[in-house]
Amino acid sequence: MTEYKDYGYHDAKPLHTFNYLQTPLLSLLDKNKNVSILDLGCGNGYLVNYLVSQGYNAFGTDASGEGIAIARQTNPDRFFFQDLSTGKLPEGLQNLNFDTIISTEVIEHLYDPEGFIYFCKQALKGRVKLSYQRLIMAI
Q1: 113 within a domain of the structure (yes/no)
Q2: Mean pLDDT across the stretch 13-41?
Q3: 3-state SS string over 72-116?
Q4: Collapsing DSSP states into helix, strand and coil, what is residue 28?
């Protein structure tokens, strides 16, 4: 893994970004169309845990061991440590079919954003939803 600086998650509370992302992000989701969701860069897992509580089938990955440990306190089987530079999903997710990938406030921190988009396209059949500085894009 390239040098990674852990965000420093301390609890399972939503980050400040959730305040402005919640409404537009949730408006893009539909339980009938977004059957299996992967949150790449899920941090402390707040969004995935929220989606699961709303009846979505969601999973999360992150490079933060602290974040994954916090996320697993609520739904231990939904979260996985991931080094995106490997180009592969974690072993526990490789046999799942995802139709939606969510990645909020992640792409601007990556050394290879184009490689990240390619990785997302390989990991699913549906659309990718990314946020970058208060902009949500669906590609």
Answers
A1: yes
A2: 86
A3: HCCCHHHEEECCHHHCCCCHHHCCCCEEEEEEECCHHHCCCHHHH
A4: coil
- Which tokens belong to 9? 């998650």
Do 125 and 96 meet the contact criterion of CB atoms below 8 Å apart?
no
Instruction: Name the domain count of the chain.
Output: 1
Task: Provide the domain limits for residue 102.
Answer: 17-138
Residues in contact with 2: Cβ distance below 8 Å, sequence separation at least 6, in sequence order: 85, 111
| Interatomic CA distance for residues 51 and 67, integer angstroms | 17
In a domain, 134, yes or no: yes
Is the distance from CB of 99 to CB of 35 less than 8 angstroms? Answer: yes
pTM, 2 dp: 0.81
Residue 125 dihedral angles phi and psi, to the nearest 5°: -105, -15
* pLDDT tens-digit readout, 87-138: 789 999 988 888 888 888 766 666 677 777 777 777 776 555 555 544 445 5
Backbone φ/ψ region at 81: left (φ over 0), alpha (ψ -120 to 50), beta: beta
